[in-house]
Amino acid sequence: MKRKEKQKKKVTISGRIKKGMLFTALPPIAILGIIGIFLNFFNQQYLLKKTVQETAIVAAQEISQKILVYQTLAYETGSIARLSSETVSTEDKKELIDQKVKKYELVEGAIVDKNGINIFNGIDCSEREYFKQAMAGNTYISEPSPSKTTGEMSMMISAPLWKDGIPDSEVVGIVMYIPNPDFLNNIVSDIKISKNSGAYILDSNGITIADTDKENVERQENIEEEAKTTRSLKKLAKIHKKMRAGESGFSSYTIRGIKKYIAYAPIANTNGWSAGVNTYATDYVGVLIVAVIITIVLLVLAVVIVMRISSDLGDRIGGPIRLCAERLNLMSQGDFHTESPDIQSEDETKILSDSTAQIVSTMNYIILDIEYLLREMAGGNFNVKEKDEDKYIGDFFGILKNIKMLNSDLKEVIQNIQTVSEQVNLGAVQLSEASQGVAEGATDQASAVEELQATVETVTEAVRETTNDVEQSYKLAVEVGGTAQESNVQMDNMKEAMENISKTSMQISNIIGDIESVAEQTNLLSLNASIEAARAGEAGRGFAVVANEIRQLAEDSAKSAANTRELVTTTIEAVERGTKIVQLTAQKLLDVVHGVTDIQAGAQKVSDNSVKQLEAMDQVVLGINQISEVVQNNSATAEQTFATSEQLSLQATSLNDLIGHFVIKDE
């Protein structure tokens, strides 16, 4: 039950597809929605900025054009010859001026002579700025300001009055017009871009000279001055400073808790005037809210559609994949018999279903076939083949190839073991026979050495006796005269003894020849044993050691025999010399009396040679003792080798019996 609950809690691929599509689609949708909202906001800001700026520019251009009309009117009036002629009456001049005033809907018009006196009402205007500017040849428009006579806001437009109406000639006075004081207010009042929008005009001093709220004009509002005491007006004051500097731009400010946008532009043909158009930020919030609501509705609709599509897609893809995954899971648990799912779609899930069925079928066949092959090889049958090689497709062919290589390698190994086993068995038999021959030879060597030892002891005793005789001969040499006949008899005995010594030495030489022959045979047998041990490989390593020891003993025997032969040769030579001396002594016995001195010297020499013979024979005895020890060791080693070879032969036979259980080819 717990396992089933865990399986239910597992996330299915259908759920992953649904979540994946949602997580994939929702962020872009949300991002697009947010981008849309921001684009709407920035687009609205851009349109607002562009609209307000264009409105400010249009307002500035309209005011500039209106003022230009008035300036042109004043300039043209100053170029009328009748107005500067002294022959034309004041009434006629006034009539002409009044016509212009009426035509252009002005408040008043007048002509001022060069002394600054208004010829229509006699008012002195000589101190007025507009008079000075016009007399200087300039067309001038004054800043709107309260009239000194009426107290109402008014502005003057003046131009030079040229003599005889010729421009740029002599200035004989000025022409002046007073436009409607509300014409600027009327212009800004007509500017509307939103419910709470407004417009106003600043002069070069930052004073409001036109506004939709006339009260600001009447009280000569100056934001820059008021900002010095009112902190909330500081940002607007900075904007007004840019307006006075003749800049164009767009900005925002907050006044009395209300955020406003403002665009401003300089007014041409004026003394640094600037027009500003402002509007409440809240006038555009409603449109933005509607756009945001529409965007959110579209986002929700898109999410619903994506969820529906992801659900259908997850079921169409996840269902077949889940069935195939469950079948593959059963296969991972060793189940190759359960039927695979049958998907009827025409897309990749059909390919997945068919591939799953093919995998299960192929794996089932291959596993059963591999089980059959390994079972047969485990039973010793290496003469086995796969049932159908064509089933091993793709990478599965590598498995079959490796099994074939394993079968072939094992066959070769078993055959090699069988061959080596036969060779080891044959070598063991040969080694056993050779060891037996070596043991027999060693026994013969021991007997020969014993005989040789007895003979050498006899010879040694004879040499010792000869030495004693020589000494006696030397002692009796003084009495040689009286005992010559007796000495002759003794010399005959000595001659016979020397002949015996010579014969015995020859026998020792023959015995040493036999020892050398035995050593050579032993060395040959050890060499054959080493060869057979090398063929046996690891199994014959012990026999190689034994064979090496036998060879070493044989070499030592050969060396000892050579030394013994040298000693015997020396002995024979000494015996031969003794024989010659005895013969010479026998010949000289008749002259012994006459050659006592010579006999004594010869006896001394014989005595010395006898001592040397005795020492040589002692060396022969010592060498024979060494040969005896070597022969005994050879005999023990040969017996041990024979026993080991018998054991090796038994093991080789057992190995052949084991190898015989394997079937590596057809009988």
Query: In angstroms, what separates the terminal alpha carbons?
Result: 59 Å
DSSP summary: helix tally: 15
Beta content: 5-15%
Query: Could you list the spans in which at least 5 consecutive residues all have pLDDT below 50?
Result: 1-8
List the secondary-structure elements in sequence, H or E: HHHHEHEEEEEHEEHHHEEEHHHHHH
Output mean pLDDT. 75
Beta strand count: 11
Structural class: alpha+beta
Shape: elongated
Bin the helical content: 55-70%
Strand arrangement in the largest pleated sheet: 8-7-11-10-9
Rg value = 74 Å
Largest sheet: 5 strands, antiparallel
How is the secondary structure organized here?
Elements: H1 2-9, H2 13-78, H3 81-84, H4 90-103, E1 108-113, H5 129-135, E2 140-141, E3 145-146, E4 153-154, E5 157-162, E6 171-178, H6 183-189, E7 198-202, E8 208-211, H7 214-218, H8 223-226, H9 234-244, E9 249-255, E10 258-266, E11 274-280, H10 285-332, H11 348-378, H12 396-476, H13 484-536, H14 541-588, H15 596-659
Antiparallel strand pairs: 1-6, 2-5, 3-4, 5-6, 7-8, 7-11, 9-10, 10-11
Helix pairs in contact: 2-10, 10-11, 11-12, 12-13, 12-15, 13-14, 14-15
3D structure, described in words:
By secondary structure, the chain is an alpha+beta fold. It is 68% helix and 9% strand. It contains 15 helices and eleven strands. The strands form three sheets. It has a five-stranded antiparallel sheet. Helix 10 packs parallel to helix 11, helix 12 (396-476) packs antiparallel against helix 13 (484-536) and helix 13 (484-536) runs antiparallel to helix 14. The chain is elongated and about 220 Å long.
